[in-house]
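// run 5 | inverse folding | seed 20
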């Protein structure tokens, strides 16, 4: 019975380890070629918006009798038009997405600072404060370096995210192996 469990766990662990290594390699490639990765991410967002727009049209027609049909169709059109604009003008889309990311980080950093001071009586509130400051600084860096940072920024951030996802999968797989090794007789 124990060998069946260990075999299943090994297969799962190996899959997790392999996917973690592949993700880490893809993350490095994304960082090495940030302009390509940025355009790829922008195109992916455009495709998602277009697909979501058509999905909203289907929903609007299926729920026509519930009201708000015109608004649902207009919203669908907005999604589709935005997606098409991102596909037709990818560099402008990258500029816009980078500016939106900077704005999002500035807003999030501000909210995190407010939250930190609300949590001030609690222990470890400085972690929230530090997160707010770092997020605010990142947002400001994006804004102050925009538009010069736009071609590489999103690709680099996607690459870093993929590397950390891959590393976490590798570490979980290795942790699972060490736990399994400690349990075998």
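// decoded
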């Amino acid at each position: 019975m124990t060998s069946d469990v260990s075999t299943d766990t090994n297969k799962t662990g190996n899959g997790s380890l392999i996917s973690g290594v592949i993700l880490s390699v893809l993350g490095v490639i994304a960082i090495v070629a940030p302009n390509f990765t940025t355009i790829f991410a922008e195109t992916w967002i455009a495709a998602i918006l277009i697909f979501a727009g058509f999905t909203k049209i289907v929903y609007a027609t299926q729920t026509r009798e519930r009201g708000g049909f015109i608004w649902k169709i207009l919203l669908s059109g907005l999604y589709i038009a935005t997606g098409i604009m991102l596909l037709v003008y990818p560099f402008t889309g990258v500029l816009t997405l980078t500016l939106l990311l900077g704005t999002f980080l500035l807003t999030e950093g501000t909210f995190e600072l407010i939250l930190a001071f609300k949590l001030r009586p609690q222990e470890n509130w400085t972690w929230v404060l530090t997160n707010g400051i770092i997020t605010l600084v990142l947002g400001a860096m994006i804004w102050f370096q925009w538009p010069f940072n736009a071609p590489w920024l999103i690709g680099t951030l996607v690459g870093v995210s993929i590397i950390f996802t891959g590393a976490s999968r590798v570490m979980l797989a290795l942790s699972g192996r060490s736990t399994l090794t400690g349990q075998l007789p």
